[in-house]
Amino acid sequence: MTAKEKLSRSAPDSAAPRFNARESWRIFGIMAEFVEATERLNAIRPAVSIFGSARIPPDHSYYVLTERISRLLSDAGFAVISGGGPGIMEAANKGAYFGKSPSVGLNIQLPMEQQANPYQDISQTFQHFFARKFMFVKFASAYVVLPGGFGTLDELLEAMTLIQTRKSRSIPIILVHGAFWKGLIDWFRDRLVSEGMIKAEDLDLIQIIDSPEEVVEAIFKHYETRGFMPLPEEHELMLNL
Question: How far is CA 36 from the centre of its chain?
Fold first, then answer.
């Protein structure tokens, strides 16, 4: 069967033109999200993106830990970027909000509406996950990852993939609360490394740190021989992210 014959078998139905037009116009909405967010966030660097579960209540030890890390980062001169919602995201924004540097929330519109937390100096709302994820990477000098679910793992693995494949500049990726992450890291080592899916040195992309003070120290150590802003070659790399 030729390619033409195959394509004719999958020809769109009569409703397709209407939906195709909507898809085409949707591109302008996506472009607008990128442009607006980039203009609003350009002035906040250096920044640290913090991720973690939306389901953690304010009296949970993870919440308290996140708020402490965020406050230290804010007072050290880092804007703090979170997903703008409840749980760990709220703790991250709250710590920065009462610190010296901006608290930034990148909110997402969901079918089950995510309620934006009140601790945001800058709040930007997205319709598309991929535009929001791009901003987390583009403006971050480091990733700090607290315990979380699918969304947290998605952000973690996205960052690791981009750095591993050299599509993004190398930044610290710090996992906080080693007891939570141990099983995942062991699986990476026992399955992914042992079966040749990744190289052993790929695990060096991440650090496991439990102390808030050591989280801040590790970020400064990474940049001790250079500035926080992207180098010219890194800036060029990020343009093609």
Answer: 18
Q: Indicate the domain borders of the chain.
A: 45-237
Between β-strands 47-51 and 142-145, what pairing exists: parallel, antiparallel or unpaired?
parallel
Fold of 45-237: Rossmann fold (3.40.50)
Written as one string, the DSSP assignment of the chain is --HHHHHHHT---TTHHHHHHHHHHHHHHHHHHHHHHHHHHGGG-SEEEEE--TT--TTSHHHHHHHHHHHHHHHTT-EEEE-SSSTHHHHHHHHHHTSSS-EEEEEE--SSPPPPPS--SEEEEES-HHHHHHHHHHT-SEEEE-S--HHHHHHHHHHHHHHHTTSS----EEEE-HHHHHHHHHHIIIIIITTTSS-GGGGGGEEEE--HHHHHHHHHHHTTTS-SSPPHHHHHHHHT-
**pTM for the whole thing?**
0.87
* Residues with pLDDT less than 50, the chain: none
Residue written as token pair 């703008």: 84
CA distances from 210 to 63, 159, 215, 217, 228 (A): 14, 20, 8, 12, 23
CA separation for the pair 69, 66 (Å, rounded): 5
Q: Could you read off the pLDDT of 159-178 as tens digits, one per residue? A: 999 999 999 999 999 999 99
Q: Quick: pLDDT tens for 54-65.
A: 999 999 999 999
